[in-house]
Design goal:
Order of helices and strands: HEHEHEEHHE
CATH superfamily: Sulfate adenylyltransferase
Number of helices: 5
CATH class: Alpha Beta
Shape: globular
CATH architecture: Roll
CATH topology: Sulfate adenylyltransferase
Oligomer: single chain
Largest sheet: 5 strands, mixed
Helix content: 25-40%
Number of domains: 1
Radius of gyration: 15 Å
Strand order of the largest sheet: 1-3-4-5-2
Structural class: alpha+beta
Distance between the termini: 24 Å
């Protein structure tokens, strides 16, 4: 059993959960350790991603009730989160309260960081960022460690 599955199993045993699986184990963005630390201290309670990339990659959209394992930059599990809200907006219409729940600074700092991120990532898929691009806004709670 790898360390991610062992982490999940320990969580399930503590919470007396059976026949439930996490949907993915992942690192948050390009600053995985910093963003994971924001999840751990309760500052980061949301994340957004590019809707068109789900279509291009054929990935399933996140759903309410999904469990995900947050990894650090060494692919070690540090937290388990559970989605409680999924909303899709054009980037320019992302609510300020959502952006602030991402925990990465002011709304303007959030906006500039995400534009820069999408400007780096989307060209790999022959796409360009626009403020009309749809984004998937995922609000979550950290369920482990408590």
């Amino acid at each position: 059993m790898n360390n991610i599955d062992a982490y999940w199993q320990h969580f399930c045993e503590q919470e007396d959960l059976q026949n439930i699986r996490y949907t993915e184990a992942f690192q948050f963005g390009e600053k995985a350790d910093w963003l994971a630390s924001l999840v751990l201290d309760g500052t980061k309670r949301a994340t957004c991603s590019s809707y068109p990339l789900y279509e291009v990659e054929g990935d399933k959209l996140p759903a309410v009730g999904d469990y995900q394992i947050v990894l650090n930059s060494k692919d070690e599990p540090v937290a388990i989160i559970k989605t409680y809200s999924i909303e899709i907006y054009p980037f320019k219409n992302v609510p300020v309260d959502f952006a602030l729940q991402e925990g990465e600074g002011t709304y303007e700092e959030w906006k500039q960081a995400h534009i820069a991120f999408f400007d780096r990532i989307l060209p790999e898929y022959d796409m360009a960022f626009t403020e009309d691009m749809l984004v998937v806004c995922d609000r979550f709670e950290r369920v482990y460690p408590k």
